[in-house]
Amino acid sequence: MLNTQFSGNIMSNNLSYNQVYDEINQHKGKLLTPFQHKTLVKYLQTNLQREYRCRIEIMLLADAGKSQTQICEIVGCSQEMASSWIAIAATGLAHKWNSRPIGRPKIINNQFLERLQELVKHSPHEYGYAFGCWTAQWLSKHLAQEFGIQVSDRHINRLLKKMGLSTKSTSTVCD
Predict the structure, then answer these.
(1) Could you report the per-residue pLDDT of 117-143, keeping only the tens digit for each?
(2) Are residues 76 and 117 in the same domain?
(3) Which residue range(s) make up the domain with 87?
(4) What pTM was estimated for this model as a whole?
(5) CA–CA dist 159, 167 (Å, integer)
(6) Helices marked H in the chain — which ranges?
């Protein structure tokens, strides 16, 4: 029997953990090949991050014939996540369960943050601009040119605030 714990709660469908494990262990071949099934069950027995565990559980439950609604209740995931990973299993790409990073991509790195901090501490004149004070919009445009990363002016202001900085300077008169 599988020695692991599901990510979510099993309540609405009144299945016990053992019943769910038994169903997962019985490869019914609806979506996965026997090799894919065996491999995913093996990975499920390791110490995985919750998000990766959910992905595997979704594919195994779909292979066992569970509906998307049942899977969401068992695993405790969104309909979108279940739908996505069921489709991945159905297209034969179950082995890609760990190739997609978890969460939103991080486009802003330390180099970007350091440059933002440097820009705010200096006058735009030093970088060839006609105006004397930075705005979040101009910082965004300047950094987009340097890094090729488009960040909204609202996000620039959030980043500045997090660093204890601002484009609003009381000591400098902007022209």
Answers:
(1) 999 999 999 999 999 999 999 999 999
(2) no
(3) 17-96
(4) 0.55
(5) 11
(6) 17-25, 34-44, 50-63, 68-75, 79-90, 110-120, 136-147, 153-162
